[in-house]
Amino acid sequence: MNSIPSSPDSSAIRVVPQDRLWLGIGVIVVFVVWLFWDFFVQQGRFAINQQADWGHTLVIPFISGYFVWLNREQILSEPFKPAWAGLLVLVLGVGWYSLIALGPAAFKHHNLMGIGVALTIIGLSLLFFGWRPMRWLWFPLAYLIIFGQTLSDSALLRFTQFLQDIAAHGSYWGLTIFGYDMSKEGNTLRIHQGGEIIPVNIAEACSGMRMVVAFLALGVAMSYRGLDLWWQRVILVLCAFPTALFINVLRVMTLGVLATYDSGMADGDFHSMIGLLWLIPAFFIYLGIMWILRNLVMHEDAPEREEATEPLSIRFNSSVRRTFVIACIVLVGGGIGLQYAMQALNIYLRKSPVELRSSLANLPTKIDGWTMLQDIRLPETGVEELGTDVYMSRTYRSEEIEGNPIVHFHLAYYTGTIDMVPHVADRCMVAGGLEKRQSPINRPMPIETSSWAEDPEYTIDGSPFMVQTSQSWLTGEETLVRMPHGDFELRTTEFHDPKIPNSRIYAGYFFIANGRLTPEAGGVRILAYQPKDKYAYYCKVQFTISGGRDFTADQFVDVSTGFFEPLLKELMRCLPDWAEIQSGVVTNED
Predict the structure, then answer these.
(1) Please, which pLDDT band fits residue 154 given cuts at 50, 70 and 90?
(2) Straight-line distance from the first to the last Cα atom of the chain, in angstroms, rounded to the nearest whole number
């Protein structure tokens, strides 16, 4: 990178011409994006596909850049003197990212990879600009790193549940004060009007989490720009929590009132529009809080800063060329090393989706003495909370078992998304108003496997796939269907309805992930997101049965097993054939 002298002491200080400066910046940016391409693609997908939650991450880099521009005179007042400690941080960032990328499936976490990106950006800043400018650069960098990336579902799960409870309680009491006849079951409000019950479900999307994160980002930006004293800034940032929660309660109350006129107003696009409209008064409330804080303390106006008489220029010491070359070597070397290691180890950071072979709706409505009573379609807020629109939810009744038990059978299919936390009965049934009698227990399902045979061609985890002959109930076609690998275990939880003390409600689930079985939600990540697997999918299989005080967990497992056994091969005809996917017979590229 050529440079020209800016002063008689040209051996120590150099001004880089703008064309070459922008070229150098562009080269560094290209190398950073190339190295962390998978992270940036995943972050972009979060921001675009979940705009209501994470769309603000797209503007955070511009806000950070604005903070740098505000302090440009102080930053550029002296020549940059690169700090070689930044090289250590840069290498650490590239190494950390590579370690997470090449490590086991349990480490594949968006925010863990984000730590590597953050360290790299900090290292580059310190390496090129030195310690002095970091007095003004640390805040824009921290703001970019903290608010510029999506927090994964697993990181937010417990906090989201807490916010759901606040939204449910607050809106319940608010609507009650306004004269509505209310009842609350878990996180579901019920408005009693004219002999009808109008439900308003406080889904995870309505928890207020999106508002808290957005208001924290807004509060930090406003406090940095608009307030002078540190305690004022701290108070304004902390006010993000009560402001967001208060506005969210008002939003839920608004949806409840509108639902009394038209139940469709509490769902779908109108539901999202109400949330966006409430952001406008929320913003003005926040401005009001900042105005109060500014006027709590009267202090003399700071003297106006004199504008620079000479145009600002970006000056480096004579080591800038060497710094640029070393930074490029580290970034390019790290990128090439990571790509080579991934190819050598056959590792895929981004998992490609794989489609179902047949729609879940094609599962039989009547099979071996069980008859479907109802095919349930979830409202749009329920689908948003579920995290997928590929699902099936039905109730079946037995015509042969004593007492004619009814099974609520639920399937949900997910593919490609690595940071998705499975939506399980342990959470959603409590949110629906039920109470746990005991913690979840994994119980074996006595699935009959005597008719299964070993696959002569394909293996999984060193063992042959097991196959079973299946005849399609729709077409009559007979084929061999590969069964999932592993032990059938049902993660079972006992609930009861507080309004019916003697009730016993059992819910149990397991997952089929990349051709394997696991009863644990955490096991999905280990099975479905193995580093060497190019594709990823999992299917949640869930059963719910209600009974009286004498209904036991063993009976629940037996009834669920008897119901599921004839459906298993039909389900496996719908799910992807993992053996064929691994062998390349099925590609299902985007």
Answers:
(1) low
(2) 41
